[in-house]
């Protein structure tokens, strides 16, 4: 797999992952919508509304929202979730379906917005027992992005001095004690999702666990 992926390709991956998530959620019941996700205190429905917000908010609107929240990002995100959540879970899902092909984002970091749907889709799927995982092409690009920098999560810092190797794809990075596993497990661990640490093996796993934000 080439390390050079165009922005158009990244957006195509993003759209495909959004469509797959919408399909997975078509038959979710009310109790499942209210289930806690892997993303902090947010429910499944709130995570989906967050994804809709991210795909509906350009840089100017994002900055205005942050300033209004006095740079309190929890408040900023909560306001956007409330604004993009429907009156019912079905309406929340319809709003998400409407942004599947959106190319809007708060910044030009297209890989980050692919990461949004890859990570948050698993935040939703894992608690619901939904088996689908993102394509290896999509998750590999997100893993590479997360390994290269701290963006919305301290992903780069969390793997400093470690060697990560995917068992199901080409992703590999770093030097030091080994952490190995499926690409999605490595990606979710870099995103700080403790539920995925048990899916990893190698002498570097305890260090990675200890660095959880």
Feature tags:
213 residues; mainly alpha; 3-stranded mixed sheet; 3 strands; 54% helix
Short description:
The chain is mostly helical and 213 residues long. 54% of the residues lie in helices and 5% in strands.
SSE layout:
Blueprint: H1 7-24, H2 30-33, H3 44-54, H4 59-68, H5 73-84, H6 89-98, H7 110-128, H8 136-148, H9 155-158, E1 163-166, E2 172-173, E3 178-181, H10 183-190, H11 205-210
Parallel strand pairs: 1-3
Antiparallel strand pairs: 1-2
Helix pairs in contact: 1-7, 3-5, 3-6, 3-7, 7-8, 8-10
Question: How would you describe the overall organization of this protein?
Answer:
The chain is mainly alpha-helical. It is 54% helix and 5% strand. It is built from eleven helices and three strands; from the N terminus they run αααααααααβββαα. It has helices at 7-24, 30-33, 44-54, 59-68, 73-84, 89-98, 110-128, 136-148, 155-158, 183-190, 205-210, and strands at residues 163-166, 172-173, 178-181. Strands 2-1-3 form a three-stranded mixed β-sheet. β1 and β2 (172-173) form a beta hairpin. α3 (44-54) packs parallel to α6 (89-98) and α8 runs parallel beside α10. It is globular, with a radius of gyration of 17 Å. The model has no long low-confidence stretch (mean pLDDT 92).
């Amino acid at each position: 797999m080439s390390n050079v992926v165009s922005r158009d390709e990244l957006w195509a991956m993003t759209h495909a992952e959004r469509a797959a998530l919408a399909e997975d959620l078509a038959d979710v019941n009310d109790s499942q919508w209210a289930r806690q996700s892997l993303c902090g205190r947010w429910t499944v429905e709130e995570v989906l509304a967050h994804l809709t917000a991210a795909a509906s908010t350009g840089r100017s609107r994002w900055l205005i929202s942050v300033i209004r929240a006095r740079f309190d990002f929890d408040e900023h995100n909560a306001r956007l979730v409330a604004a993009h959540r429907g009156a019912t879970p079905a309406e929340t899902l319809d709003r998400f379906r409407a942004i599947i092909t959106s190319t809007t984002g708060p910044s030009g970091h297209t890989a980050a917005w692919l990461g949004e749907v890859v990570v948050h889709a698993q935040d939703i799927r894992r608690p619901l027992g939904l088996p689908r995982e993102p394509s290896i092409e999509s998750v590999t690009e997100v893993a590479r992005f997360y390994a290269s920098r701290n963006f919305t999560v301290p992903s780069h810092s969390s793997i400093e001095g470690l060697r990560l190797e995917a068992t199901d794809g080409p992703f590999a990075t770093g030097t030091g004690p080994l952490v190995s596993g499926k690409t999605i497990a490595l990606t979710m661990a870099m995103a700080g999702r403790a539920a995925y640490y048990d899916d990893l093996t190698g002498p570097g796993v305890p260090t990675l666990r200890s660095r959880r934000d």
